[in-house]
Design goal:
Pathway: Carbohydrate metabolism; galactose metabolism. Its main location: cytoplasm. The chain is of the alpha+beta class and about 400 residues long. It folds into two domains: about 5-200 and about 385-390, Ribosomal Protein S5, domain 2 (2-Layer Sandwich), CATH 3.30.230.10; about 205-380, 2-Layer Sandwich (Alpha-Beta Plaits). About 40% of the residues lie in helices and about 20% in strands. The chain contains eleven helices and 13 strands. The chain has helices at about 5-20, 100-110, 135-150, 155-170, 175-185, 230-245, 255-260, 270-290, 300-315, 320-330, 355-370; strands spanning about 25-35, 45-50, 50-65, 70-75, 80-85, 115-125, 190-195, 200-205, 210-220, 335-340, 345-350, 375-380, 385-390. Helix 2 (about 100-110) crosses helix 4 (about 155-170), helix 6 (about 230-245) crosses helix 8 and helix 10 runs antiparallel to helix 11. Bound molecules: 2-deoxy-2-fluoro-alpha-D-galactopyranose (GAF). 2-deoxy-2-fluoro-alpha-D-galactopyranose binds near residues 178 and 225. The site of 2-deoxy-2-fluoro-alpha-D-galactopyranose has 11 residues, from helix 5.
């Protein structure tokens, strides 16, 4: 463990002890993610390719056997929340506590004997930036409970339970990408994930070794998935699959795209959604092929194509995200696209190392000229997935 992880683990454990009067049983971490390519494909049984950020949610946790769940976060100005595990009910909580409580609910609903816990959380994953701060919270709590109650669940199984917590307990109709990324990513790799069966391949992804960088630009336009637009896109995709007579849009081969679109008749809105999903799955496969051939520079144009499809067909971009992408490409970036659900949040920019200062400055100036809030930019280095720190 690095010196800084050790320091974070110690300070979160110390805060736990001050709050609850005894040391935790352990400290765990789970990362946020960026998605390199494969957007809005996960709830269509398609392909995604996220990697973990160095930013993590950290949890100090002690097991309890008396049915009490106590939750506290260093990032929210609330006192300790005290809940009874057998009274947890979907839809009953609209605050941040719904994420960890939802995980306890989902574990118990699946038959796992989780009898209570004291939890203190602290996260460095920016909230509302489209970088999976919610999934990081869910996964870190799930991993801690998995260890403390000896459940023996694998990363992908924890991811499924966390998704259920978010879908049912929190009420956000998200796919499985973010939870799986947080649970299963590996340092130095991007995760090529088939969201139908959760089969995975770790693809080596070390841009720095090849003189490139991947920047994350947080537009600071906050997004939320429990609001309606995400759900509308999802419902539109499901309607498309039903009209085409397939279980999920993943089942329409790319070679049959034009024929499938023609069969959608006058359903123009559905046709756009379907076109995005089918072409996006093909883009993921192209990116994987380029990376495996050792040609990371070639993925740039594919990222830019993906953004155009999200902007024009899927319609989940916003002026700030478009400005990042257009400005970065105009300033010499190899590729750029929005990442995550959209309607705000972050974009990723692939660039030669030497071009990073010029691109960063161009984006900052463009935001100032447009009267937008100053964006936050950082370099994304593929980092470790969820783990125990102590
Ligand atoms: C959000 C969701 F949580 C994911 O499941 C995924 O659908 C993504 O938006 C879009 O690709 O992050």
């Amino acid at each position: 463990m690095s010196e800084s992880s050790e320091a974070v683990a110690r300070s979160v454990a110390e805060r736990f002890e001050r709050l609850y009067g005894a040391a935790p049983d352990g400290v765990w971490a789970a990362p946020g993610r960026v998605n390199l390519i494969g957007e809005h494909t996960d709830y269509n049984d398609g392909f995604v390719m996220p990697f973990a950020l160095p930013h993590t949610a950290v949890a100090a946790v002690a097991r309890r056997d008396d049915g009490v769940l106590r939750l506290h976060s260093a990032d929210v100005d609330d006192p300790v929340a005290e809940l009874a595990v057998d009274a947890l009910a979907p839809g009953s909580d609209r605050r941040w506590t719904a994420y960890p409580a939802g995980v306890v609910w989902a574990l118990r609903e699946a038959g796992h004997a989780v009898t209570g816990a004291d939890v203190h959380l602290a996260s460095t994953v920016p909230a509302g930036a489209g970088l999976s701060s919610s999934a990081a919270l869910e996964v870190v709590v799930a991993l801690a409970l998995n260890d403390l109650f000896g459940l023996g669940l694998r990363g992908w199984q924890l991811a499924r339970l966390c998704q259920r917590a978010e879908n049912v307990y929190v009420g956000a109709p998200v796919g499985i990408m973010d939870q799986t990324a947080s649970a299963c990513c590996e340092e130095g790799h991007a995760l090529f994930l088939d969201t139908r069966d959760l089969s995975q391949r770790q693809i080596p992804f070390d841009l720095a070794a090849e003189g490139m960088r991947l920047l994350v630009v947080d537009t600071r336009v906050e997004h939320s998935h429990s609001e309606g637009e995400y759900g509308k896109r999802r419902a539109g995709c499901e309607k498309g699959a039903a009209l085409l007579g397939v279980d999920a849009l993943r089942d329409v081969p790319y070679a049959e795209l034009e024929a499938a679109l023609a069969r959608l008749g006058d359903e123009e809105e559905v046709r756009r959604l379907v076109r995005h999903v089918i072409t996006e799955d093909e883009r993921v496969e192209r990116v994987v092929a380029f990376l495996q051939a050792g040609d990371a520079r070639a993925i740039g144009p594919v990222l830019a194509e993906g953004h155009a499809s999200l902007r024009d067909d899927f319609r989940v971009s916003c002026p700030e995200l478009d400005l990042v992408v257009d400005t970065a490409l105009g300033a010499g970036a190899l590729g750029a696209r929005m990442t995550g659900g959209g309607f705000g949040g972050s974009a990723v920019v692939l660039a030669e190392e030497a071009d990073v200062p010029v691109i960063t400055k161009a984006v900052e100036e463009a935001f100032a000229a447009a009267g937008f809030r100053a964006p936050r930019t950082f370099e994304a280095v593929p980092s470790a997935g969820a783990r125990r720190l102590r």
